[in-house]
Amino acid sequence: MADPYTSYAPTITYSNWGQRAVGYLIDVAPVIVVLIILSRISVALYVVGVLLSLGWSIYNRWYLGGTTGQSIGKKVMNIRLVSEQTGQPIGMLMAFVRDICHILDSLICYVGWLFPLWDAKRQTLADKIVKTVVVPA
Fold it and tell me: CA gyration radius for the chain?
């Protein structure tokens, strides 16, 4: 006879730090490289690049990431950002808030970015604040 106290809920698998880091680099590295190149050419081109970068972030990280759970980097790495409570994408506003909360990950000597290495849910401080997790897609 089965133990009535045994939970049959499926276990949740969280994405590892390496997948998350590579996905993030895919999202931001090209923008940084382009801005560095433009800054060497002229101030005007750099300003245009900054505005285009903001537009790219709004589209890629906040719109795509918030509405589908996958920025381009996350899609390449086959991972999704979802609400810890609902398992659904968090929406554009909360994706923006999460990116703002990543400032805290950096303020403590970038240790917040390393939290997924030892955290049970593999969350950064920003993830804990906005209650998100990154899971396999």
Answer: 17
Residue pLDDT, tens place only, 80-132 = 999 999 999 999 999 999 999 999 999 999 999 999 999 999 999 999 999 99
Residue 5 domain flag: no
Main-chain phi, psi angles of 12, to 5 degrees: -95, 135
pTM of the model: 0.86
Structure token digits, residue 10: 């499926």
Q: Which two tokens stand for residue 116?
A: 């997924």
What is the domain count for the chain?
1
| Residue 92: how many other CB atoms lie within 10 Å | 16
